[in-house]
Amino acid sequence: MSVKFYREEHQVPLEMHKVRVVQKLNLLPVEERLKAIQAAGNNTFLLQNHDIYMDMLTDSGVNAMSDRQTAAMHLADDSYAGSETFNRLKKAVKAVFGTDDLLPAHQGRACENILAEAFVKPGQVAIMNFHFTTTKAHVTRCGGDVIELVAKKGLEPQSDDPFKGDFDLDLLRSTIEQYGPEKVAFVRVEAGTNLIGGQPVSLANMLAVADICHDYGILSVLDASLLQDNVYFMKTREAQCKYMTTKEIYHLLAGKMDLIYFSSRKLGFARGGAITSRNPALIKSLMEYIPLYEGFLTYGGMDVRSIESVAEGLYESLDMDYISQGPEFIAYLVKELDDYGVPVIKPAGGLGAHLNCSEIVPEVPHSQYPAAAVGAALYIAGGIRGMERGTMSEQREPDGTERYAELELLRLAMPRRVFTLSQVKYCADRVKWVWDNRHLIGGLQWTEEPSVLRFFFGRMKEIGHWQEDLASKFREDFGDSL
Ligand code: F0G
Asked: Can you tell me which atom of ligand 1 is nearest the CA of 273?
């Protein structure tokens, strides 16, 4: 087992890889960072890469590939149908999940589109530990409703519970009874629960959910996009998993859940996605959607080079040396911030560190998007791009009223195998400066608000002139340094 620290008491993670290809970065002066964030409408999605020093927007599609992945890309067998490359992907999926059948798709949300089209009828509900933005958008587009049954501990920002992504199992049973099984389109377990801070689900809980679904004859679906982080936490935090191999865990899950889908932008350090199942009849029932929405059954919207990199990356997601790097870097950042008193979601999860912005700027109300405001402040302070995961990422109710997020988070994602530890320390340093100067941060208001997925393309402006004041304070504190 390989959680490697060069001195156990320091808990400084030790990378089990070396960097062999590099990309030059820019760090603009603070005055230009101020202009850039305002030109981007205070929406970090609209910043340009050129203007960013640390891109912590997401861990999706931005993970560093290994030498084996890039080498495999040269072997790609390009053909519309029946390519050898697809057979290699099938072999990798079989090795990881033990399943024979799979449907390729261009990314995770494409799988969600197909599952929603196939299984969600108007008036039905899809039950999950917690929603993901694209999942919910597809379920509601098909006339369904999303019900979230994450256990209460999942929404406590500070906790030492190791598995905050767990379902409340009693509530799951009673909710199914309340609606009746025929009204439940499926139950979806999201490994590494994204929107509550990358918090894992225990193996015991996942298996119990699958059993409950089986008892009621309801389809169980595992969103495995963040499963590699989740498996790391199972092995390090759950007694029954300590002596299991990663492969045994993946196989056990795939043997219990009816359907598994994943984004290979996360699972597999690449691009693309797929749906797999131990049940060939289920896969057959979804087959027709692939040529309709994605492409032929042997490429599903991915180019063959990507498929090769997914196949190789899937093998790497069994390797603790690789899958421990992200969670350990995140744990390091979370500890640095927590020791300094910055409100951060605890325990550290996968995906990234998550700042609890309701506590950083308690005087900025939900209606002025505190997490987006802290995100803009951190970009001004350090050229660091995070992602708002709070009220801005919610959608208004059909009558136009705001739906306030339960947690106002700024996510600082940790792309896997990308940053060095000194960059992570820089990030901690700049977050601490934002925390020290939090009294300067004010709210934001819309200038352009799209009706769907507004966090992607919406634009906002500062309320008052707090951003100019923050940039001036930075200049005062840092002198000529960037
Ligand atoms: N499921 C989970 C748990 C995800 O985190 C994502 C994407 C998806 C599904 C959709 O996959 O992007 O390949 O279409 N999460 C990204 C993020 C976008 O930044 O958290 P996709």
From this structure: 13
In this structure, which residue's CA is closest to atom 11 in ligand 1?
A: 108
> Do you know the residue count of the chain?
482
Q: What is the DSSP pairing of strand 387-389 with strand 409-413? A: antiparallel
User: What is the number of other CB atoms lying within 10 angstroms of the CB of residue 291?
Assistant: 11
Per-residue pLDDT of 127-167, as tens digits, reads 999 999 899 999 999 999 999 999 999 999 999 999 999 99
Q: Which residues contact 139 (CB under 8 A, 6 or more apart)?
A: 116, 120, 126, 145, 146, 185
Which of 268, 341, 352, 359 has its CA nearest to residue 310?
268
Is 340 among the catalytic positions?
no
Could you confirm whether 175 is annotated as catalytic?
no
Atom of ligand 1 nearest to the CA of 110: 14
For residues 353 and 327, is the Cβ–Cβ distance under 8 A? no
Tokens found for residue 195: 């929107």
Question: By three-state DSSP, how is residue 34 classified?
Answer: helix
Rounded distance between C-alpha atoms, residue 297 and residue 301, angstroms: 9
Distance CA 88, CA 308 (A): 7
Q: How far apart are CA 363 and CA 361, in angstroms?
A: 5
* Binding-site residues, ligand 1, Cβ < 6 A: 58, 60, 107-109, 132, 134, 190, 194, 223, 225-226, 263, 265, 273
Which one, of 130, 57, 125, lies nearest residue 352 by Cα? 57
β-bridge partners, 326: none
**373-410 pLDDT, tens per residue?**
999 999 999 999 999 999 999 989 989 999 999 889 99
Question: Would you call 70 exposed, middle or buried from its count of C-beta atoms within 10 A (0-12, 13-18, 19+)?
Answer: middle
C-alpha–C-alpha distance, residues 319 and 324, integer Å:
8
Nearest CA to ligand 1 atom 1: 225
Kindly calculate the radius of gyration of the chain based on its CA atoms and give it in whole angstroms: 22
H/E segment holding residue 425:
helix 421-436
b/e per residue 147-175 (b: at least 16 CB within 10 A): bbbbbeebbebeeeeebbbbbbbebbeeb
Which structure tokens are listed for 30?
């603070």
